[in-house]
Amino acid sequence: MEELQASIFTLPEPHRSITARDLWSEMASDLAGEFGDQYARLEHSGMRICLLHEATMSPDKKIVRYRTIEGTIRRRRGQPTLLDIAVGNLFSEAGVSPPSALHVVTDPQYALWARHAAQVPLGEHVRLVRLFTADLMDAGWNLEPTRLTCTTIPPPLVENGRGVQRLPLGKFRSLVRYPRSLPNKGMMAAIVWPDLHAAKHAADRLAHAFSELIGPLADDLQAVKCLRRPIPEAVNLVLLPDNQDLTDMPELR
After folding, report:
1. Is residue 129 classed as helix, strand or coil in its secondary structure?
2. What is the rounded end-to-end Cα distance, in angstroms, of the chain?
């Protein structure tokens, strides 16, 4: 419970007059303004802020792994607002200011280092959350401890074509191979893309997954299409580069 309480706080909010994203943006702006050498706002990376002093260089000194603080603002009518904080990672080219996100985990040159550098031990998570909240309060924000209650949730029941089973199973694959219901004949799936090469690769993998999941019945489905815009009659899978945010692209929503 101590570790949970170190990550969830009550955020007094008399008037919920702005969106959660705008509220986080104000908090990030105040932190970056008060502690400009320690924090950097990330304009297109959702609700997170970069900790500049928490950096690790790649062996060739070309890539930097920064720790980030990722916030979730939880609101419910009649209940106090909660700020749920987690520690994450951002990889960026060295020397870039402010840091700009790179996807390096699948790069053969950096994959092993990146996977190791991205691990966040529990003790470090607690330390960085406490550092962040102390600085946030120094910047003028009021956070209060949250009273948490332990609860036990039984394992979920999952129904597929072979009946009802309780998780966890030996292999997830054995569950999904027998769907409870099959998609309608003629169902269309579409990959919405900014990059055609990536879209074609995703379409091939999706078609292969359909074939493995439902076997010959996949022949009744339409071919997976690659499109520049979503269409209402299809199941649309949107591919986004790491530096883009779906919330900033209303044409795709």
Report:
1. helix
2. 38
